[in-house]
Amino acid sequence: MRKRLISAVICILYLLGGPGKSVANKKAERAIQERFAATGANGDDLTVAIQEFSTEEEIQNLAQIFAQQGEGALQKALAKVKKGLFVTGNAAAAPLVIVQSKTEGSGRRLQIIGKAPTVSTEGEILTPHPDYPYTFIQLEVDDKGNGKGMLIPFAALLFNDQGRMVLKPMSKGAVQLVNVHHEK
Fold this sequence. Notes:
Helices cover 22% and strands 43% of the residues. Strand 6 and strand 7 form a beta hairpin. It is an alpha+beta fold.
């Protein structure tokens, strides 16, 4: 009887795709390391939830992809990256693809690039322009996590000959962010 029960369980697991297959195929959701909130000069709230920071090696790999294969290949590579999420105004949550943090004096500067979100306004759904698929967020915070920042809602991401990121905004001007603060 016990052998039959074990055989039945093994058959069921095999038919369902093997033991632990669903767990193995799903990427474990990473915990949020830091969360920031801010208010835009336009009145929209911004929330940034960072799960992981970009490494210099990752940035160099992206620069190499851009140099060798162009902007389309870069966008394809970034489509597979998720470093966290951000939400602004009445837009849907959008993934972060690059998150850098650099110490400056007693504070730091965070440079964050996310996929430009889909926005719902007055019953109309606006999708990002295909040539400007990213949102750029810069936060300058003190040692307590308070500060200011700016947001460029739609931009293209490129790399120059030295392998440094270059943003090409869709329009001039940026949304100034006030009341930037670290949330616990």
